[in-house]
Design brief:
single chain; Rossmann fold; 2 domains; 40% helix; Glycosyltransferase family 52
Length: 346
């Protein structure tokens, strides 16, 4: 397929529209794998978003020049209406491929469309568990206003001969579906795990979740999750009595009790300025095991460091709003050698 060759060919000028730390890592990997020298990176960011600092740190560390787009002030409809006009900015319409970090974000798609030449492909980068949901056929509901913007976007994409929803550069390439063209992202350039690294592996990492959001999704009180985490710490200590356990909080978590829970259980509470994947890469750390609640990072790290032991905790509350969502993710994780540990509520 000629279009797929252009989507994943080397040396193709590209515009990147990304908004999270992991999307940044995927973008950097794409730049290296496809040897892209002519590119532009655009960040549609909301002010005061906690993860912005992590994203910017990663890009700065790799010397990636970027342009920040105020996402709260931006309007996808206005961008698309401007695209209908003849006059554009001097650097518009000069890129032959777009890499987009969020499949569901019409703003990201609209920005990318405004920078593309006619007939250029759009390629989606991974956005964690959201990517798994896409490949599993889970559809998101859209408000009527968003539907109007989508209609204009797809009309313009058709006029510019752009296929907007076909190509993915993804670590989830083994999910069996035929709607999308998936090009494997092995993180061969950023991450590599050698057998000798296993010999110097040490420490256990517990990947934190966004407490309030997770509890709402599972229909439980935050105090209940706090008790669960405390008990899990004790179990992990029994399993790894000689290993230091580190709890890395989620970038958006604002729970004020977990630091105390960590202190009470002899667990190191360590907030980090970058994503957990990049933190381990930068510090050259190789944990013995990682734990979490269906965290995207569990899967990412297992892929990047195949010899690591990964455990996914699933709260067995089948009437919870998001139980089926987490259950499906867990099933896929299990297929990729991530152990499932069920937590039954009393």
């Amino acid at each position: 397929m000629k279009c797929s060759k252009k989507a994943f060919g080397k040396y193709v000028s590209s515009v990147f529209v990304i908004g999270s730390p992991f999307q940044a890592l995927c973008a950097i990997e794409a730049i290296r794998e496809f040897e892209i020298s002519d590119y532009k990176v655009i960040l549609p960011l909301s002010p005061n978003e906690q993860r912005n600092r992590q994203l910017l740190t990663i890009l700065k560390d790799f010397g990636i020049v970027y342009e920040i787009f105020n996402a709260k002030e931006a309007r996808a409809m206005q961008i698309l209406l401007n695209e209908c006009k003849i006059k554009h900015k001097k650097d518009r319409n000069r890129y032959n491929r777009a890499f987009i970090g969020d499949y569901y974000q019409i703003l990201y798609k609209s920005i990318a469309l405004s920078y593309l030449n006619t007939g250029s492909p759009m390629v989606y980068l991974d956005d964690g568990n959201s990517s798994i949901s896409i490949f599993r056929g889970v559809k998101k509901k859209t408000a009527w206003r968003s539907q109007c913007v989508n209609l204009l976007f797809y009309s313009l994409a058709r006029i510019k001969k752009i296929i907007p929803d076909r190509f993915f550069y993804t670590i989830y390439y083994d999910i069996d579906e035929r709607k999308f063209f998936k090009y494997p992202n092995h993180f061969s350039y950023l991450f590599f795990h050698k057998e000798k690294d296993t010999e110097r592996a040490s420490g256990v990492i517990f990947i934190g979740t966004n407490t309030s959001a997770f509890c709402e999704q599972m229909g439980i009180q935050e105090s209940m999750l706090e008790n669960i985490i405390s008990k899990l710490f004790m179990e992990i200590h029994k399993e790894y009595p000689s290993q230091e356990i580190t709890y890395v909080p989620h970038g958006r978590d604002s729970n004020i009790h977990i630091p105390d829970i960590c202190a009470q259980n002899n667990v190191v509470y360590r907030p980090i300025e970058v994503s957990i994947e990049y933190f381990l890469y930068k510090e050259q750390l190789f944990p013995v095991a990682i734990y979490g609640f269906s965290s995207t990072a569990l899967f990412n790290l297992k892929k990047m460091m195949p010899n690591i032991r990964a455990v996914n905790y699933v709260i067995e509350k089948m009437n919870a709003p998001y139980y089926e969502y987490f259950n499906r993710i867990s099933e896929y994780y299990q297929q990729n050698s991530i152990k499932r540990e069920s937590i039954k509520l009393l």
